[in-house]
UniProtKB/TrEMBL annotation, chains A, B:
<keyword id="KW-0460">Magnesium</keyword>
<dbReference type="GO" id="GO:0005886">
    <property type="term" value="C:plasma membrane"/>
</dbReference>
<dbReference type="InterPro" id="IPR006669">
    <property type="entry name" value="MgtE_transporter"/>
</dbReference>
<comment type="subunit">
    <text>Homodimer.</text>
</comment>
<dbReference type="InterPro" id="IPR000644">
    <property type="entry name" value="CBS_dom"/>
</dbReference>
<dbReference type="InterPro" id="IPR006668">
    <property type="entry name" value="Mg_transptr_MgtE_intracell_dom"/>
</dbReference>
<feature type="transmembrane region" description="Helical">
    <location>
        <begin position="295"/>
        <end position="315"/>
    </location>
</feature>
<keyword id="KW-1133">Transmembrane helix</keyword>
<dbReference type="GO" id="GO:0046872">
    <property type="term" value="F:metal ion binding"/>
</dbReference>
<keyword id="KW-0472">Membrane</keyword>
<dbReference type="Pfam" id="PF01769">
    <property type="entry name" value="MgtE"/>
</dbReference>
<dbReference type="Pfam" id="PF03448">
    <property type="entry name" value="MgtE_N"/>
</dbReference>
<comment type="function">
    <text>Acts as a magnesium transporter.</text>
</comment>
<keyword id="KW-0812">Transmembrane</keyword>
<keyword id="KW-0479">Metal-binding</keyword>
<comment type="similarity">
    <text>Belongs to the SLC41A transporter family.</text>
</comment>
<dbReference type="InterPro" id="IPR046342">
    <property type="entry name" value="CBS_dom_sf"/>
</dbReference>
Length: 461, 461
């Protein structure tokens, strides 16, 4: 491209980082053109630089990371996935790490520090300016409000004026970014109210903040689960949420960007649970980590399926008398597993979103029963139709009737199992998402095959 | 509780609305105590009132909705689920609807209007103050940036001063809430820059806005898909995103709270796809809607499973010679289905989050092959062990070896099918999430059973 040609993608386009840029950077890095690479990535936003680094081959990413100025790589660090961060930071000296980590907000500092080699992390920590804050943050559980919050906030005494609050925003402008609100605290540093930035902007300078602050602010304590934090911010449309100690003292704030990651992560985790993946599989996870995460349920599934197999072998006599029954084994398994996983997924989603309450349970089960009966009838008729169309001689009618009745019962039972198991697990304090996926599929396979062969033995043999 | 007793739950607690409140309201409504109900719900935030209405029996919810003052129910309307809104608004007069809808932000007005009876909606629309804006919003696709945006923004000419911009925030204080930034536009109303509220607060009153505004603001066009909108706001940590016409003219803005809903909805949709639910099943969906959404894949699954059944019947001779082979039918089906759905879910998630690029594909498939080989070996050994422990007379060793080899091949093939089908679908422009769940399960069942019986015929018979 000549220097005069207008770029096809404007500089502010979110698609600026793509396969073509990755390829161009690979070529330039391999040719050792440091200057060109720096020019090419100079205007990238931190998140885009992180995306670029993540899509470069690992060795080249390390080269680029070390070529770039510290203030640029520092900003990109919080945007990287943990596995990549470990890789890129590996081998850096303690002073280099301190220089990279110090400019970040406290929550990001804690996150990045968690990816530094343990033996080095302590040396780095003590040299950070906010070492005390970071240490406190590292003491909270990763999946709690404390683990999400940053300690940097703009806070003023209740007795301050609007002008003083504005000045506080100014003096914290670098450390607290973005600012959404100023927090008013009493003499014991207890959160007393919230002053949205808009109100600060529109109020006369000499107004006392206690006259302009909102007193009924929502706040959370640091040990609250991050899913609950996300639900609260979503529910009340908050962009920042103050975190206070059990005694009400202001500890920090959680901003919406951190919570969006939580929502996506939790949703990905639920989906992974539903397909039988334990742990958290990421694109960057190692083959061994991926294998381990998938094997747990596959091995349990293997044992469960072996039991299903024993059920079939247990009805060997029936199969010897009427080998055609084998035709229905995959049908019963597919339908029992599928109907169960459908109803379990809906129950799990209702519980996860907080929309499903105990007072709804009776209505909920009643509805699932209605759906199961309706779907059972439709599927039974469809299966009977298929059997009649296929034709099995004189026995066709009896076979069709047997299959239809058995399938009907299987659908109703497996739908109800799927709908109730997550509710029961939730009741006794176990993550209901565990009930989705392989667990329901395998137990419904066993249940379905048993019911099918019992019905077939009664009606057909 | 006596009037002097302190409430157990403080008034700002997010758990204020729970089963107990619902029960109390039910009792009071049934007893006709309108005054008590109004007192009880007086301090609820709009989202909490909506939650309460959603958990009341439908007839009582309608009573409470009509008891409450218009300004209270108006604010709760956007927080309700669509099905509930339809129910609650049904039967209201046109003037009542206008009074409820007029105070809302334009994006919420459009959403609520979509739930008003069609014949009445037009009468309501023409009587709304912002009828022209709303009509424009209704013309955008529901799942696009245009469908998400509100037309209310604070915009000032590039030539304005900071004082004038502050005045613009003041005069729009009711219509635009919350305000995160003021948009600077040129003489053609084209977006020229963004002034974050913090900068407005900290800049001298007589500064021209063109000196304080950020020129490289990210913006989107109204036809952009909402998933892409969510990805951009998430990536760049934005709380508000301006929407501009193809020519660059400022049309409105999207705020983060709308996008959080999008992320949750899309995640729920992906999970529902994974378990074979078409459409969008909500807790409030009718039995018929739920049944329809689940039946599509169940019926397709029935047909697919019938093909699996034909495969088994096709190998009837093998089963007659060695009935023990039936034992492995559920195992092969469970393992093929499960391994395939695991790898497909990871591919779908990578594509959905935008983290999986074309340049990663070779690496991706290579890794899945590695995982499949590793898991295949472990599962094959486990199965051989189970067979040996169960003991099948003289044939035990040969049976164990046959089962192990067959399972190994099945795991590798089904993992690769699961990993590649979503990528292929994505390539040809079909939603890759369709590949998860029943599709992969059913096709892998057929593939797995065929491979198993072929291997068994070759090695065992």
């Amino acid at each position: 491209m000549s220097e005069n040609a207008a770029p096809v993608v404007p500089p502010d386009s979110p698609t600026l980082v793509d396969d073509h840029l990755v390829e161009a950077v690979v070529d330039l890095v391999e040719a050792g053109h440091r200057g060109h690479v720096l020019n090419l990535v100079a205007d990238l936003r931190p998140a885009d630089l992180a995306a670029l680094l993540q899509h470069l081959p690992a060795d080249l990413a390390r080269v680029v990371f070390r070529w770039l100025p510290e203030e640029v790589t520092s900003r990109a660090l919080p945007e990287l996935e943990s596995a990549e961060r470990v890789d890129l930071l590996d081998g850096l000296s303690t002073p280099e790490l301190v220089a990279l980590i110090d400019p970040l907000a406290s929550d990001d500092q804690a996150d990045v520090l968690a990816d530094v080699d343990v033996t080095q992390a302590e040396d780095v920590l003590v040299q950070l300016e906010d070492a005390v804050d970071i240490e406190a943050l590292l003491s909270y559980g990763e999946d709690t409000a404390g683990g999400l919050m940053a300690t940097e906030v703009v806070a003023v005494p209740l007795t301050a004026t609007v002008a003083e609050a504005t000045e506080a925003v100014r003096s914290n402008a670098d450390a607290v970014d973005p600012v959404f609100a100023v927090y008013a605290v009493d003499e014991e540093n207890k959160l007393a109210g919230v002053i949205p930035l808009k109100r600060l902007l529109l109020s006369p300078a000499d107004t006392p903040v206690h006259e302009v602050c909102e007193g009924d602010a929502v706040s959370v304590e640091p040990d609250l689960d991050q899913e609950e934090v996300a639900r609260i911010m979503e529910r009340y449309d908050l962009v920042a949420l103050p975190v206070v100690s059990a005694g009400g003292r202001l500890l920090g704030r959680i901003t919406i960007d951190d919570v969006m990651n939580v929502i996506r992560e939790e949703a990905e985790e639920d989906l992974q649970r539903a397909v039988g993946i334990t742990g958290e599989e990421e694109l960057s996870s190692s083959i061994f980590a991926v294998s381990r995460g998938r094997l747990v349920w596959l091995l349990l599934g293997l044992c469960g399926a072996y039991v299903s197999g024993l059920v079939i072998v247990g009805f060997e006599e029936a199969l010897t008398i009427a080998p055609v029954l084998a035709l229905f084994i995959p049908i019963v398994m597919a339908m029992a597993g599928n109907a169960g996983i459908q109803s379990s997924a809906i129950a799990v989603q209702g519980l996860a979103s907080g929309d499903l309450w105990r007072s709804d349970l009776a209505r909920r089960i009643g509805k699932e029963l209605g759906v199961a009966l309706l779907n059972g009838v439709v599927l039974a008729v469809a299966l009977a139709g298929i059997v009649v169309l296929s034709g099995f001689g004189d026995d066709t009618a009896r076979l069709a009737l047997t299959a239809a009745i058995a399938l009907m019962i299987v659908i109703v039972l497996s739908t109800l199992v799927g709908a109730t198991v997550p509710l029961a697990l939730n009741r006794i304090g176990i993550d209901p998402a565990l009930a989705m996926g392989p667990f329901i599929t395998v137990s419904n396979d066993i249940l379905g095959l048993t019911v099918f062969f019992l019905v077939a033995t009664l009606l057909y043999l």
